[in-house]
Design goal:
2 copies of one chain form a homodimer. By secondary structure, chain A is of the alpha/beta class. The first copy, chain A, is built from 8 helices and 28 strands. Helix content of chain A is 20%, strand content 29%. In chain A, helix 1 packs across helix 7, helix 3 runs parallel beside helix 7 and helix 4 packs across helix 5.
Chain lengths: 431, 431
């Protein structure tokens, strides 16, 4: 059986990075940048005042004292958005407001609190150092500077920089579209009263939320009965998406309905088991162009489309969510062009014993407490693959080797599940 | 001058928590729950099989051995979504699939790998413990259990639980609408070539992104010239929103245009300075119903609307973003009903000296490196309030007391800026 690392490696090798598109800057929040950004200008574009005050020549103020203030003539005013009518000459000053360009000839600003003004006469009682209260041209960013690298998640500060560079649009990677299917004769839509032996379909909602939390677009394919025809029909409807994800239906009793449907779609199954707990029955396949051809090649246009990755996740709700986090989310991030694709990991100490009997690596749901430098991990109660409460309470997944019991106080590695969670260095600046 | 804590306390006391609304479950991702959720049912609703196999009475299998297997008769099959036709009697078994309800009379499941089947005859070579491979009714959640508290951020696991409880809709707090205004004669729209003394309007993009990263809705009021009439007109257009945020225009030279506009709107200014660096000139006001009455009371309906909080942020890009993070984001979270409203904080060690000269507390932009338990913080270069690069590179804000130099290796507290950043326990499970 494949290890998690081997399986993830196969997934990340197989999935295509999607194409790029040019979109308006505000829409780019949280998207992955698809071009390097080199500044085309100096920021600020000219030396400017950091205070409301008076632009001066520092030479003029040498020797200024309270008892013997230097007198300057105010020859004009430079508000924000304006420039000086003419260069500053010896013995002159300009009234200047914060952010306004320094007039040629000036090399310092005296704050308004430090002067005496009477009509067009200014009294300055102290010398000014050259450059005082002046922001030099290009002190933030210089023309030619590499400002942002491709693959960066565009957060508020990146959008601010792109705006300051005057960029109304930006090239980003396309957002993956993910078609989600639940399978199972026992499932009813939520809001419908379940009959005997029936339960509400929760996996569609879990997967839909996980897709959107991964910044991907959702196409909900609903519920398919345990029947290869029904599953095939719904999967065909999902072939216009970039990725297909189903839950359950793999190895239902004596038949494997999802495998049958995949065969009919001409899919190549890469693997169908991973050595992990929960989540062992986990199928990864690629659905080739044949599937599309029958489904509706028009959507894809004349050119061949890339293979569509297919993830067949287990039906148990916890297994379904954990396998999504470990395999589908990184795949969606890779497809969406993000440089950072893996969830952050932190090191914690076991607050109580964390037990993983059996031959498969465990991904146990834990709660974290304490400051990041002294995190404690405790299992969220019963860890059965049907126990949704264990996910509801979880901050992360403790990674535990086969047949291993981590004693209280021993270190344990934890994969963070929360977007706004704890610890773990990652460079996502996204929103 | 107010301290940051005093100012934030005034803001959080003044802002109203918004009303609630009932929305479809999938739309609730990332929203704050506005009702307690008590389970109305047991999950799972009946004891069910955790394996594909055979439902049995464990009593029947006492004494089973490889050399002397117990023979049982297979009297039916229970696939997912079905129930047994009749209770199990002594000497009988039901074929049962994963998740299907255990038939009355059965108390254990024998996995299919462990039996020999021949027609309707089953040979079992080992005893089964009572409860083996059976998930008891209510093992996940019991009817009456408090499952979720109001104020919880609804993440994928919470949506999965609500779906499993059969809830198609959920009551959440309303999402704040935030009207954003940039002011300044020097500003031009991005995409327009700036004239002499002009710069692109970056604050609208920074604030718009910060609003959306705070999960609030944006109303962009554009750019107002440095003129009280222009500012007043745009702010009036924003009175239909829940919150108004402007940047710059506070104390422009000899006049305070934003203050003049606020006076005309009948606003009560609570404070207009906070002892911090960057960000000292930071106005907080409440615009009462008078403002609305003149602007368009029809939108508000017949009943009086709550005061609208107004934040007048500094115009320097870094000051603008930092004051948003420290004051506006927590206010929006409070208004949106979230239990967790403050950004996470971590403790790091200074990787190089972090210097905060002057009488105001510093919020210096730093990069964090290393594992969460041994984070190192280094300033992101020049810390001027116009240096956007310092924000672009920042993982967080180092909080440094006035006139203090933190030497390399000394501890420093850091407020995290990244949603998907590092460290700091918070209970947001949002997406």
């Amino acid at each position: 059986m494949l290890s998690v690392e081997e399986a993830l490696d196969r997934v990340l090798t197989a999935v295509p990075v999607l194409g790029t598109e040019v979109i308006p800057l505000p829409d780019a929040l949280g998207r992955a940048l698809a071009e390097p950004i080199d500044s085309t200008r100096d920021l600020p574009p000219w030396p400017n005042s950091s205070m409301d005050g008076y632009a001066v020549r520092s030479d003029d103020l040498q020797g200024a004292e309270v008892s013997r203030p230097v007198r300057l003539r105010v020859v004009g005013e430079i508000p924000a958005g304006a420039v000086a009518q003419r260069p500053l000459r010896g013995g002159e000053s300009y009234r200047i407001l914060t952010g306004a360009p320094l007039p040629p000839g000036a090399d310092a600003v005296v704050p308004q609190e430090e002067v005496e003004r009477d009509g067009d006469q200014l009294g300055v009682a102290r010398p000014a150092a050259p450059g005082a209260y002046v922001r030099p041209r290009g002190e933030d960013i210089r023309a030619g500077d590499r400002v942002l690298e491709p693959g960066t998640t565009l957060g508020p500060a990146a959008l601010a920089v792109l705006a300051a560079l005057g960029r109304p649009v930006v090239r980003v990677y396309r957002t993956p579209r993910v078609a989600v299917l639940s399978t199972g004769d026992e499932l009813v839509d939520i809001g419908t009263v379940p009959g005997p032996g029936q339960i509400p379909n929760s996996n569609s909602y879990a997967l839909g939320a996980l897709v959107r939390a991964s910044r991907a677009h959702l196409q909900d394919l609903g519920i398919a009965r345990d029947d290869p025809d029904a599953i095939e029909a719904r999967l065909r409807a999902g072939l216009a998406a970039d990725v297909l994800v189903s839950s359950a239906g793999v190895s239902v009793g004596d038949r494997d309905f999802v495998r049958e449907a995949l065969d009919r779609l001409g899919a190549r199954v890469d693997f169908w088991k991973v050595s992990m707990r929960p989540g062992k029955p986990m199928t990864f396949a690629l659905i080739g162009n044949g599937g599309t051809a029958r489904a509706g090649a028009s959507a894809a246009g004349p050119s061949e489309r890339a293979d569509r990755p297919f993830f067949g996740l287990p039906g148990n709700p916890v297994s379904c969510m954990v396998t999504f986090e470990l395999f589908v989310r990184p795949a969606l991030r890779r497809m969406g062009g993000y440089r950072v694709i893996h969830p952050p990991r932190v090191r914690a100490r076991a607050g109580e014993a964390i037990d993983n009997p059996g031959p498969r690596r465990g991904y146990l749901r834990v709660q974290l407490a304490g400051p990041p430098e002294r995190l404690t991990a405790r299992p969220t109660g019963e860890q059965g693959s049907g126990i949704l409460r264990s996910m509801l309470l979880a901050d992360g997944l403790a990674v535990v080797a086969p047949d291993t019991r981590i004693a209280p106080g021993e270190p344990v590695e934890v994969i963070l599940l929360r977007d706004e969670g704890l610890g773990g260095v990652r460079d996502d600046g996204g929103a």
